[in-house]
Amino acid sequence: MQPLITTGPPGPRARAILERDAEVISQCMVREYPLVLERAEGMNLWDVDGNRYLDFSAGIAVMNAGWNHPDVMRAVGEQLQKLSHGAFLDFCSEVPVQFAEKLVSMLPEGLERVYLSNSGAETVEAAMKLARYHTGRKYFISFYGGFHGRTYGAVSLTAAKVIQRKGFGPFLPVIHVPYPDPYRPFGFSTDTCDVDVIRYIREEVFRTEVSPEEVAAIVVEAVQGEGGYIVPSKGFLKQLRELCDEHGIMLVVDEVQSGCMRTGRFLASEHFGVVPDIVTLSKALGGGFPLGATVASDEIMAWPPGSHASTFGGNNVSCAAGLAVLKILDAPGFGDHVTGMGAYLMERLKDLQENHAVIGDVRGIGLMIGIELVRDRISKQRAKEERNAVLNAAFRNGLTLLPAGESVIRFSPPLIIEKEDIDMGIEILDRAFSAVSL
Ligand SMILES: Cc1ncc(COP(=O)(O)O)c(C=O)c1O
Predict the structure, then answer these.
(1) Ligand 1 within 6 A of 120 CB?
(2) Which of 256, 280, 289 for a ligand 1 pocket mutation test, highest count of atoms within 8 Å of Cβ?
């Protein structure tokens, strides 16, 4: 289906709603471009003025099964007739249990006990508290560029953009270390930055800042998301796993964005042959309904009743939606489809890079792909304004994309994407790059 832009955007209805939004909604919301959504289906979004967009955002990597998937909508409709809020903290019901059973069946062995919550940040908070409870230690290590959410524990781990931290400290005791970004290796070399980061933790952090016996967890994204869709080397997570094992530190892998088949495997960490001690999942897990899961082994998740909980965790509607989503993601061939479409999108983006010098880097796994815009390819100066201009031009031509990091465009489309969608998106993007005459 071709995007169809007839009015604006923003058209008159969108403009009127945006004006009201500006009057009443907290200013901390971000509005990348003036999109006012009315409905969505599959790969498409419609705004309130009837414009249709091809969507490469999946609503911040959430609608992995496609917008308004009929199976998800049916499951939600049926559940609504029976029970929405089931007070799962105090009363048991079957749907959250069924959901957790299905989730565990799709995870690597050893990840077998599930704590249910409502958002990514909540899953991270639970992981931090669990790591402290299990180890009796206080400190955490996380990475520059990492994003884990905005509640106090999660934002303490986060070091993606200073605006997310400015004015909010002091934070929990977290030591930030470089993430091994092959394109911007923090003064290390591209080929060895993974080993260098591990050495830095071992030889600098543990020697000068914190004793490893005081570190409860190292919290890492298997592929950095908000920081710019950065893929570490093949060996990095394994080396981190070894470092954690050596010192009894919990390895927490935050798969809130990279999980749920986004990379072609259920967890991105599976590509790297690593099983986390604790894994966090949210975003795509609930198919558009608030749902988070923190998962660990029986041995690690051994906290007593009442030690951690939330009123809405295990909400029946979210879990019914989540169960339907998991069945879709678990269908035979789904992962291969993601891998195939990811490879095709990557190839098309590399072609685009040949025609537009501003594209400095194309990287990703599966359908978690980023392109980094730079003023020139030698200095790699970040092209933030240019990135924003391209996003806006794409939007005005009917393609919705989101930014990541300072100068990256992220590609996190619904995983049901087909080649024709990719071709259409690339055509619009090509025009957008040309229109902003970079
Ligand atoms: C890796 C990661 N962790 C945690 C979060 C926080 O999730 P939420 O916004 O649902 O709190 C995000 C959100 O983008 C994320 O990408």
Answers:
(1) yes
(2) 256
Domain limit, last residue, from 329, 346, 367: 329
- Last-in-domain residue among 297, 329, 361: 329
Residue 160 is part of which domain span? 70-329
Coil, strand or helix: which one is 361? Answer: strand
pTM for this structure? 0.98
Residue 384, both tokens:
């933030």
Instruction: Read off the pLDDT of residues 315-348 as tens digits, 9 standing for 90 and up.
Output: 999 999 999 999 999 999 999 999 999 999 999 9
Decide: 146 in ligand 1 pocket, CB within 6 A. Answer: no
Ligand 1 proximity of 119 Cβ (cutoff 6 Å): yes
- Note the pLDDT tens digit of each residue in 3-52: 789 988 999 999 999 999 999 999 999 999 999 999 999 999 999 999 99
Domain total in the chain: 2
Q: Whose CA is nearest to atom 3 of ligand 1?
A: 148
Task: Name the nearest CA neighbour of 156 among 219, 249, 224.
Answer: 219
Strand locations in 67-173, DSSP E?
113-117, 139-143
Give domain status of residue 65, yes or no: no
Q: Using a 6 Å cutoff on CB, does residue 124 contact ligand 1? A: yes
Tell me, rounded to whole angstroms, the distance of Cα 313 from its chain centroid: 20
The strand pair at 408-411 and 402-404 is best described as antiparallel
Give the number of the atom of ligand 1 that is nearest the alpha carbon of residue 122.
Answer: 11
Q: Are 239 and 198 in contact (CB under 8 A)?
A: yes
Contact in structure between 253 and 260 (CB atoms under 8 Å): no
pLDDT tens for residues 403-426? 999 999 999 999 999 999 999 999
The structure tokens 């091809």 sit at: 54
The CATH number assigned to the domain holding 427 equals 3.90.1150.10
Contact 282, 304 (CB under 8 A): no
Cβ neighbours of 377 (radius 10 Å): 13
Pocket test for ligand 1, best of 29, 118, 147, 281 (most atoms within 8 A of CB): 147
The answer, yes or no, to whether any atom of ligand 1 lies below 6 A from the CB of 262, is no
Strands 408-411, 52-55: pairing is unpaired
